[in-house]
Known about the structure:
Structural class of chain A: mainly alpha
Strand order of the largest sheet of chain B: 1-2
Shape of chain B: globular
Radius of gyration of chain B: 20 Å
Pfam families (chain A): PPTA (PF01239)
Strand content of chain B: under 5%
Number of helices of chain B: 13
Strand content of chain A: under 5%
Helix content of chain B: 40-55%
Oligomer: heterodimer
Order of helices and strands of chain A: HHHHHHHHHHHHHHH
Number of strands of chain B: 2
Structural class of chain B: mainly alpha
Enzyme class (chain A): transferase
Number of helices of chain A: 15
Distance between the termini of chain B: 43 Å
EC number (chain A): 2.5.1.58, 2.5.1.59
Keywords (chain A): Magnesium, Prenyltransferase, Repeat, Transferase
Largest interface: A-B, 69 and 65 residues
Distance between the termini of chain A: 80 Å
Family (chain A): Belongs to the protein prenyltransferase subunit alpha family.
Shape of chain A: elongated
Amino acid sequence: MDALEPELEKILDFEQYGTLTPIAQDDGVNPLAKINYSKEYEQGMAYFRALAAKQEYSIRAFNLTCFLIMHNPAHYTVWAYRFQVLNHIPELIPQELAWLDSVIEDFQKNYQVWHHRQKLLGITKDYKHELEFTKDMFASDAKNYHVWSYRLWILQSFQDYTEELSLTSYLLEDDVYNNSAWNHRFYVLFESNAKLERSLQDELDFLNDKLSKSPDNQSAWNYLSGILKKVGPNQLGGIANQLEKQLPSSNRFLLEFLAEYDPTRSKVIYEKLANEVDTDNQLLWNWMIQQVPRT
Amino acid sequence: MQLTVSKHVAFFQRHLILLPNPYEEHDSERMALGFFCLLGLDLLNALDKISEEDRESWIEWIYNNYVLLYSKETKKSYAGFRGFATGSTPILNEQEPQLAATSFAISNLLLLGDNLSRIDKQAVEQFLSLCQLPGGHFKSTASTMCCDQDMRQLYLATTIATLLNISFPHTKLSLQYIQKCQNYEGGFSLTPYAEAHAGATFCALASLKLLVNSIPTQKQLGLDQTSVTKPYEFQDYIPDKKRLLLWLINRQQSSGGFNGRTNKDHDTCYSYWVQGSLQLLGASQFISQQDVKSFLLCQTQHKFGGFSKIPGEFPDVLHSSLGLYALAFNDKANFPEVEHAICLPTRRMPIKK
């Protein structure tokens, strides 16, 4: 018996499980958080319990996990059982990756599918396929936290950073406000042990270009602020001057950056923010003035 | 715009009778679903609407999900709650206690008026030890077959330790993990170097507060409890307080709602995670309370009761209870007093002996 074709996943022929005695949920008479299950899900789970009780790791068990996952993609027990089946029938693994790739649209915001992929990667070691896959995922949602965390984990496990700058550049070209891409880039350049050949000046030029196109972009300003904290002010004179020349003096983020970059100007800048530029946040800027060390 | 109290009460009551079919996707999280409904009712001072029969049955159902197991490795018992009952036969890790289920179960028992006496607290202490990883973070069960291991599990472990007044395993390791998770933007991420996220930030700050302020922890850290002035503040463990504060304040959008990450959209639940964080820091004066209220009451409060994630969607139990909690932070007239580090009204907190 072959594993299910994808289109059949949402319906299941329960006759093949007829030899099993389904086991009902042990839910008591008056449970908390009772859910209005569909008949198929309830039936499917009853057969699942029966299969699990026998520890049957077969194709029909595999198909049943497919079906149940489509109803409840967060069912970590079903995923764990599916993984056990794959351990027993490793011939299913290539097909498994293809299936995961095809159904991922349904599971984007789900933790379990990523854990499952991670466990499979432990077997296949094909991290390049996974990196490629995460790139495909970014096409439909370039900010998916799970996908970025997964990609980060792959980098840390397999230490291959070759694509990261081009990937983040590409994504930022598409959407300069993509904070996930900025965050990933910051990690790769300033926190990881990837020894990429990229001068600080080149990166500051890149950042300056983005800031001039999106002067209200908190992601880019946070990135600059992060660099300032990492490398100190000495090498940032160029970009600080350029930004101050290019951007209006009423740009709140510019002012915040300058206050951080040059502490001798902090007090005056925070006063300007409090009293002119960002009066809505007057309380905050007055508090920031109090934090400035007295000289 | 007013809070439509009776509609919200009816919303939670309906969902406690039966959760609609779309919740089938969350079948593994029923303990949490129950929690959001009970919490919602308590925030509306309406727990008395639950019949005695339901109250007792639900307490029994929760305890039916209590498991006490024996670890061959440590030769000790460990205990906790599982998220759902699948059957009486063990299926892989399904019979294993789970951190989220345990935390929500304890909260549910407190909301339902149970005194937690049927829980073997030392065994739960063991359970927490088995879940802790060498890096100081936690996996969601003692079994090696799971991968959920991020700031959320750490927070759940601290909540459990606090509510049961039991020892936390290696506190210093967990404090270090939390510190590693503050990233360049100022917020905290779910795992080191991932993106700063308001949910992760709340979990980090609440965990810090609970860990640093708890007596068993203080003993571990060798802090002097007898001195007059506090030798510690949980805020002292935050690597960059200023940047954190600025990042949190920047989560408030022009709508009055909050986003969870830079340049993302507002979502009702972030009104809770961000405000909760600011409350813990004593910094809630820096955001506009009027705008907080206006977003929730005018944009995500639903005409059928409950709150939705974003304007125009249907309400769900999570966003409904957290939306109410977000309002409760600043409205002592209409809501009971609420805890900051733990998601419970203060009157439900167990009294420490």
